[in-house]
């Protein structure tokens, strides 16, 4: 699925998305979750703690496609009998090691976001996106967190892995 289609789906599914949430999705689409991994064992401890704290939603979608062969695994929908945390953590680490991304392509994707923003149907304006992208560029295009509005509304708890694992 093309990135713009993914963004349209997410804009409709998460109407309270802010510019940083769209950028986070594109960042993960290009770089996967690798920016988060330094110590796999520490990551497993954090995953266990996060899983214990997340409100379970067994009927929720387990995998959310974010394009480029990457999915978000929703911890709220996770059945440990089917997909144990140890396996999810291994898949997360393996995906991060394989999926490095390309900074130039990432910048091209941000440009596509800017060009298509009004047609995507976000709950923010192109002007808001422009202001955010200018600050983001001056910061050197770092990994970003979800906006407070997104966190409060959707309680995101997931791990980013390659679809093929």
Total number of helices: 7
Shape: globular
Instruction: Give average pLDDT, whole number.
Output: 94
The secondary-structure element order is HHHEEHHHHE
What is the percentage of strand-forming residues?
5-15%
Count of discrete domains: 1
Strand order of the largest sheet: 1-2-3
Q: What structural category arises from helix and sheet content? A: mainly alpha
**Uncertain segments:** none
Proportion of residues in helical segments: 40-55%
**Distance linking N and C termini:** 18 Å
* Major sheet attributes: 3 strands, antiparallel
- Tally of DSSP β-strands: 3
Cα-atom radius of gyration: 16 Å
Structure described in brief:
By secondary structure, this protein is mostly helical.
Describe the structure.
The protein is mainly α. It has one domain. β1 and β2 form a beta hairpin. α1 crosses α2 and α5 packs antiparallel against α6.
Q: What key phrases describe this protein's structure?
A:
mainly alpha; 3-stranded antiparallel beta sheet; 7 helices; globular; 3 strands
Explain the layout of strands and helices.
Layout: H1 3-13, H2 19-31, H3 40-53, E1 63-67, E2 70-74, H4 85-98, H5 103-120, H6 126-138, H7 148-154, E3 158-162
Antiparallel strand pairs: 1-2, 2-3
Helix pairs in contact: 1-2, 1-5, 2-5, 3-4, 5-6
């Amino acid at each position: 699925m093309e990135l713009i289609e993914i963004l349209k789906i997410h804009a409709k599914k998460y109407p309270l998305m802010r510019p940083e949430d769209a950028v986070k999705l594109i960042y993960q689409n290009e770089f996967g979750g690798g920016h988060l991994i330094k110590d796999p064992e520490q990551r497993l401890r954090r995953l266990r703690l996060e899983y214990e704290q997340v409100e379970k939603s067994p009927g929720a979608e387990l995998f959310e496609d974010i394009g480029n062969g990457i999915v978000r695994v929703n911890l709220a929908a996770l059945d440990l009998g089917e997909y144990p945390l140890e396996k999810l953590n291994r898949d997360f680490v393996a995906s991060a090691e394989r999926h490095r991304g390309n900074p130039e392509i990432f910048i091209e994707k941000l440009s596509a976001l800017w060009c298509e923003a009004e047609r995507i149907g976000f709950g923010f304006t192109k002007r808001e996106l422009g202001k955010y992208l200018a600050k983001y560029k001056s910061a050197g295009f770092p990994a970003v967190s979800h906006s407070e509005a997104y966190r409060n509304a959707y309680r995101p708890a997931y791990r980013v892995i390659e679809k093929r694992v």
